[in-house]
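PROTEIN DESIGN WORKSHEET
SECTION A - STRUCTURE
LENGTH: 303
TOKENS:
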């Protein structure tokens, strides 16, 4: 099953040095999930060959502008391009009012349904589930209410050994049983063992998106054991006082969190405009967590 993320924006606060504010496009089995929607997200979708109309779910971590100011334009373009199917938005409750005021005064009558799920910044909760994935919130600590999001794949059915199955022309009910790990017995009493006709499915993977937060260790339980952790790393560690003052994290702290969470891969993002070159942030993180990478625009990460 496809499970990857395309980085659309990696900058904090402002677009600079060809970096855009926060936005990511998560592809889960060819279903699109947009995580945050900073200024310029529409342009980044176009540049990366991603069709905005295929986005079904949008997750907004908090209401600082660099995480949602691209949303009105994106929703308006979906309207102008004839969208009819529903769009689901998971965000702080105040976002609904912000969007409706702008649509009201621009006399924009959105012609497709927008359904809201208001996130709770106090208690982690499951906010979405389908046949492929479960999405849960991560409670972060920023200057305003903020949540991260964890996307966890569901365990898949066992994989058929197609040549063996096709050679015996097994009926469909038998195939369903075998894929579920159950043996099948035919009318003559012959037993077909699941382990002879299938292999183990891929292990479910998990992706945690930790948006703006001070490093307080309180959310470690929520991200424990994830395969890939995206974590803001606004500053280098020599700016630790500034990070604490603005409720942000340093690259070194992000790496320490990845270690404590037993993550397999760390993606660094939300870089301060003070850094034209990002290699020093990466090197700082790698001194603690070697499998750290820069979540820069246009990069696609297999999760």
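SECTION B - SEQUENCE
RESIDUE ASSIGNMENT:
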């Amino acid at each position: 099953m496809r499970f990857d993320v395309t980085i659309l924006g990696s900058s904090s606060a402002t677009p600079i040095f060809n970096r855009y504010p926060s936005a990511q496009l998560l592809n889960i089995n060819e279903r699109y999930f947009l995580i945050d929607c900073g200024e310029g997200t529409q342009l980044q979708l176009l540049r990366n060959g991603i069709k905005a109309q295929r986005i079904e779910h949008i997750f907004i971590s908090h209401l600082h502008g660099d995480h949602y100011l691209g949303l009105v334009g994106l929703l308006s373009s979906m309207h102008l391009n004839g969208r009819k199917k529903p769009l689901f938005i998971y965000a702080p409750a105040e976002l609904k009012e912000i969007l409706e005021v702008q649509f009201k005064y621009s006399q924009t009558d959105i012609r497709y349904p927008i359904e809201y799920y208001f996130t709770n910044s106090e208690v982690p909760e499951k906010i979405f589930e389908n046949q492929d994935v479960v999405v849960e919130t991560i409670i972060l600590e920023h200057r305003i209410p903020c949540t991260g999001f964890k996307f966890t794949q569901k365990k898949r059915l066992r994989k058929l050994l197609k040549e063996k199955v096709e050679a015996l022309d097994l009926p469909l009910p038998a195939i369903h049983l075998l894929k579920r790990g159950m043996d099948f017995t035919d009318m003559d009493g012959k037993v077909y063992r699941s382990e002879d006709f299938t292999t183990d499915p891929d292990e479910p993977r998990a992706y945690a998106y930790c948006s703006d937060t001070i490093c307080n260790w309180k959310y470690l339980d929520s991200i424990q054991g994830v395969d890939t952790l995206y974590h803001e790393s606004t500053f280098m560690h020599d700016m630790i006082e500034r990070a604490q003052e603005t409720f942000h994290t340093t690259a070194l702290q992000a790496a320490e969190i990845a270690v404590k969470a037993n993550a397999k891969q760390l993606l660094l993002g939300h870089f301060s405009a003070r850094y034209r070159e990002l290699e020093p942030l990466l090197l700082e993180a790698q001194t603690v967590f070697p499998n750290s990478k820069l979540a820069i625009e246009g990069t696609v990460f297999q999760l």
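SECTION C - NOTES
The two ends are 11 Å apart (CA to CA).
The chain has two domains: 3-156+202-302, 159-199.
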